[in-house]
Amino acid sequence: GQQVMQIPQYQHVQEGEDFTTYCNSSTTLSNIQWYKQRPGGHPVFLIQLVKSGEVKKQKRLTFQFGEAKKNSSLHITATQTTDVGTYFCAGHAASGSARQLTFGSGTQLTVLP
Amino acid sequence: GAGVSQTPSNKVTEKGKYVELRCDPISGHTALYWYRQSLGQGPEFLIYFQGTGAADDSGLPNDRFFAVRPEGSVSTLKIQRTERGDSAVYLCASSSGLAGSGTGELFFGEGSRLTVL
After folding, report:
1. Cα B80 vs. chain centroid, distance in angstroms?
2. HEC states along chain A?
3. Which of A36, A67, A74, A78 is most deeply buried (CB count within 10 A of its CB)?
4. Chain B residue closest to A102 (CA)?
5. Cβ separation B105–A48 shorter than 8 A
């Protein structure tokens, strides 16, 4: 079945440093979504990317969808303590059971003040 | 309600018992998902409903797990003969769009934490 991997699993940064998490799918995706989960909370939707090579920005966050629609990345510029949490990518397979939204294992971000 | 509501928020049960977890999605959302999340892991897909029907139940781990959504709104996840390995947070999410259509943002509830002793 479809697998979605994320690296790194953990990332500690000093406040003000940049952060990037990478997401790779074993199958081609029709779209990819990113979620943030604060400690003790539930996943909260950040963004959806649909087109090959798409880049979207939300303030300090930049999201990319690979040309082959099998990988994605999230980059945070100048991290703040409010960025703490676990970031998940999640994708719908382009074929087969497109109804499943498969989540990656997440990257847990710690921002040191 | 304003968001996805899940009850109970916490459930402690003994091995072998039967458990029901309830999800009340956002009004008007036709799509409903159940996920299971263990500590330090990403949400694991269990089942997806579009309206009243289970459009994809391929994530249910075995026949002890069953979910229903009889009127296309509230859903109940049922676990028979619980095992210690079933302990996890069970997350419900709803969406207004068809899965895979590019409009499938999921709104998650707070989850039901199940502990099987």
Report:
1. 15
2. CCCEEEECCEEEEECCCCEEEEEEECCCEEEEEEEEECCCCCCEEEEEECCCCCEEEECCEEEEECCCCCEEEEEECCCCHHHCEEEEEEEEECCCCCCCEEECCCEEEEEEC
3. A74
4. B45
5. yes
Cβ count within 10 A of residue A78: 11
Beta partners for A107?
Answer: A87
Over residues B23-46, the mean pLDDT reads: 94
Q: Which of B42, B50, B110 sits opposite A104 (nearest CB)?
A: B42
Q: What is the per-residue pLDDT across B60-98, written as a single tens digit (0 to 9) for each? A: 999 999 999 999 899 999 999 999 999 999 999 999 865
Work out whether the CA dihedral A47, A42, B98, A3 comes out positive or negative: positive
B66, two tokens: 């069953």
- Tell whether B107 lies on the interface with A, counting CB pairs under 8 A: yes
The residue of chain A nearest to residue B99, with distances taken between CA atoms, is: A99
Per residue in A12-31, pLDDT tens?
Answer: 999 999 999 999 999 999 99
Residue of B43, B58, B111 with shortest CB distance to A103: B43
Contact list in A for residue B100 (CB cut-off 8 A) is: 30-31, 92-93, 98-99
pLDDT score of A7 more than 60 = yes
pLDDT tens sequence across A81-99: 999 999 999 998 877 655 6
Asked if B99 lies within 8 A of A106 by C-beta distance, the reply is no
